[in-house]
Each structure stands twice: as C-alpha cells, then as structure tokens.
Amino acid sequence: MHPRDLPPTPKALAAVLRGPGTARELLVFTHPLTGDQLPKGTIEPQEDPATAAIRELREESGLSLAGPHPIGTWHRPWEPGYAAPQLWHLFTFEAPRDLPECWAHEAEGSPAEAGLIFAYRWEALTPALAGAMRPLFAPVVRLILAAQTQDAAPKGGA
Q1: Strand pairing partners for 35?
Q2: Where is the Nudix hydrolase domain positioned along the sequence (predicted)?
Q3: What is the DSSP code string of 1-64?
C-alpha cells in the first residue's frame, strides 16, 4: 500500500492568540532547522486531541495554558519523506496578559527536537502572515484567521 493511502497520523496544533478582535496577534516560533511555525505534534495513543495540544504547547514553548478552543481540522496530504498523511486538530488558546514579547525555549518531548532552541515572538494575525510562514503552515494560519473573523462577526438576533 502506498503511504498516501494509509490512515492519517493524528496531530494537535496549539495557536496562542492575544489582543483585541481588531488587532489579534498569533504566537509564532522560528524552528532553527525548518523556519517559522506553530506548536504542533503527534497525538499519543489514548490521548485526546485537546490534551495533546496542551502538552505540545508546554513541550515546545514552556507555556502551561488551559482551555483549548477547537476550531476544526486540516488534512495534510502525504508527501515524500513522511510515513502517512496527517490530520491536524486545531486549537486556539488565549494568552495571559503577562507573556513577554519574545523568548527562547529548549524543546522537550521529541528526540528529533532534543536540544533545539525555539525562538518565540508575536505576529499580527493577518492574511500576509500566512505567506510569511513556513509554507506547510500557511493553510492553518488561514483557518485560524477565518475562525477569528467568524468569532468576531456580529451575531444575529434582536
């Protein structure tokens, strides 16, 4: 069986946001080997996606946040170099007010990332950000932006 036909590997992504609805910012990090991205990783056996998002955020950023808000999934098709397609479960977290503008964190949890330093910073959540990210993350940034736009839309009713 070709890898593209295998069941997708489940992943969890943690998007940390701050600021008012008209000026939202997204927490982004620079991976020293692959460029700008968001905290994400494999969901462990018997782990639910929300718990995995909390764990991945802690391992990759040092942040211990609760209250993940599910915004959907994204299917990453198989491509050479990967064992199977991936199904990303997307969650947003609201940042506490006391987070710094930038910081560095040594990644934990994954042997492939052992010793790597991730440099975190805030970026304006705009359509231009999708183009500035590592291309793999561009569709996800667009989904996060769409979810924020939908959440900020006026609700119907009198």
Answers
A1: 31
A2: 7-145
A3: --GGGSPPEEEEEEEEEES-TTS-EEEEEEETTTEEE--EEEPPTT--HHHHHHHHHHHHH---
Beta bridge partners of 106: 117
What's the chain's average pLDDT?
92
pTM over cut 0.70? yes
**pLDDT for the residue numbered 158:** 46
Q: 115-147 as b/e, with b when 16 or more CB fall inside 10 Å? A: ebebebebeebeeebbeebeeebeebbbbbbeb
Q: Token pair of 87, please?
A: 């199904």
Domains of the chain: residue spans and CATH: 8-151 (3.90.79.10)
3-state secondary structure of 77: coil
Q: How far apart are CA 32 and CA 96, in angstroms?
A: 26
The tens digit of pLDDT for each residue in 46-89 reads: 999 999 999 999 999 999 999 999 999 999 999 888 889 999 99
- List residues bridging with 26 in a β-sheet: 17, 123
* Nearby residues of 101 by Cβ (< 8 Å), 6 or more positions away: 121, 122
